């Protein structure tokens, strides 16, 4: 089997590639909304952003056993100029020892590896909250990360055409959200979560998320990861994703996948 086919044979790796693929697809539409749904998913300028870098850093932290804060700072330094927020950069450069009291979506956008890794953790929700609070301590940021993580757990139970019945913890993702860019983590993450769980395919989810005409890369990443868990990621799309990633990122995804599968086998 090729490296890619091996990755696509694991739900965790498929989710990570689906998440990263959503980020790349949304990168050219950040504050530059698509005019209609039939846009090119991966045009030449499309690229991975801070969403991908910090998600891979989180996955690497779990595999390596390094402190999450250290890995986030390491990757930010190693992969600069990827669209990091100014406050996050100040944190990454060491101006704060604790997370920022930020209500932004930065914790939710990188929580996928945490949700997958901690599936069998007894105090799961508290551990997810602690992972989020490494960078974001505002209650909205933590709640958005928790809702995104709960959606990951739920998506793992769905297959193909299964009817989506939302768990009580996700009852608020159907709330009306104002059009346009939303700085608040809950207003940004919830539409993406809903799309990721309800879309008919990975591509459908990513296109719908981008057509929200808001935080395109982040919302497409969240939706793409969830949809990939439910529907898988087409090989042709996966090939386009990996072509835009550093080999180091694929190594981390592969290592994460290997350990994750071993964890699940211990059930």
Q: Helices and strands: which structural class?
A: mainly alpha
Mean pLDDT: 91
| CA distance, first residue to last residue | 26 Å
Question: Rough shape?
Answer: globular
Number of strands: 0
Strand content: under 5%
Rg on CA atoms, Å = 17 Å
CATH topology term: ADP-ribosylglycohydrolase fold
Number of domains: 1
CATH class: Mainly Alpha
**Sequence of secondary-structure elements:** HHHHHHHHHHHHHH
Instruction: Please estimate the helix content.
Output: 55-70%
Biggest pleated-sheet summary:
none
Number of helices: 14
Tell me the name of the CATH homologous superfamily: ADP-ribosylation/Crystallin J1
Poorly predicted spans: none
Going by CATH, the architecture would be Orthogonal Bundle
Describe the structure.
It is a single chain. With 267 residues, the protein is mainly α. It has a single domain (3-265), classed as ADP-ribosylglycohydrolase fold (Orthogonal Bundle), CATH 1.10.4080. Helices cover 59% and strands 0% of the residues. The protein has helices spanning 3-8, 11-26, 50-64, 68-78, 86-92, 106-109, 112-117, 124-133, 139-155, 185-198, 202-210, 216-231, 235-242, 247-265. Helix 11 (202-210) runs antiparallel to helix 12. The longest helix has 19 residues, at 247-265. The chain is globular.
Which key features would you list for this structure?
ADP-ribosylglycohydrolase fold, 59% helix, single chain, 0% strand, 267 residues
